[in-house]
UniProtKB/TrEMBL annotation:
<dbReference type="GO" id="GO:0003697">
    <property type="term" value="F:single-stranded DNA binding"/>
</dbReference>
<dbReference type="InterPro" id="IPR000424">
    <property type="entry name" value="Primosome_PriB/ssb"/>
</dbReference>
<protein>
    <recommendedName>
        <fullName>Single-stranded DNA-binding protein</fullName>
    </recommendedName>
</protein>
<dbReference type="GO" id="GO:0009295">
    <property type="term" value="C:nucleoid"/>
</dbReference>
<dbReference type="GO" id="GO:0006260">
    <property type="term" value="P:DNA replication"/>
</dbReference>
<dbReference type="Pfam" id="PF00436">
    <property type="entry name" value="SSB"/>
</dbReference>
<dbReference type="InterPro" id="IPR011344">
    <property type="entry name" value="ssDNA-bd"/>
</dbReference>
<keyword id="KW-0238">DNA-binding</keyword>
<dbReference type="InterPro" id="IPR012340">
    <property type="entry name" value="NA-bd_OB-fold"/>
</dbReference>
Length: 108
């Protein structure tokens, strides 16, 4: 029987300032956005350029690396897995988001 694996690789640019959270036990998490380029056909038939926005986060040593070197506008390749989570916003509305948990990052 084959095993289905949860892997994602994106090549794009860091599109936000890093949001860093340090926990009491010393662990660190960094959250950031990555944009990737896409092409699509508009209603008039012409090919257009666009961007997709992706939320990403990393823990530990990778978080420290991104904190130090992952500035907004930096071209990167990230590899990890998709994580879906839910939370309640300040108005009490439940929101669900999907993010990339980054396991590897490469500056381009």
């Amino acid at each position: 029987m084959t095993t289905i694996r949860n892997h994602v690789t994106l090549i794009g640019s860091i599109a936000s300032d890093n949001r860093i959270m340090q926990f009491e036990n010393g662990n660190k998490i960094v959250r950031f956005d990555v944009t990737t380029e896409k092409q699509y056909r508009a209603n008039n038939g012409k090919i257009r350029e666009g961007r997709e926005w992706h939320k990403a986060f990393a823990w530990g040593n990778i978080a420290g690396f991104i904190e130090q070197f992952g500035e907004k506008g930096k071209k990167v390749a990230i590899h990890g897995r998709l994580i879906t989570r839910s939370y309640f916003n300040p108005e009490g509305v439940k929101r669900t988001i999907t993010e990339v948990e980054v396991k590897h990052i490469l500056g381009l």
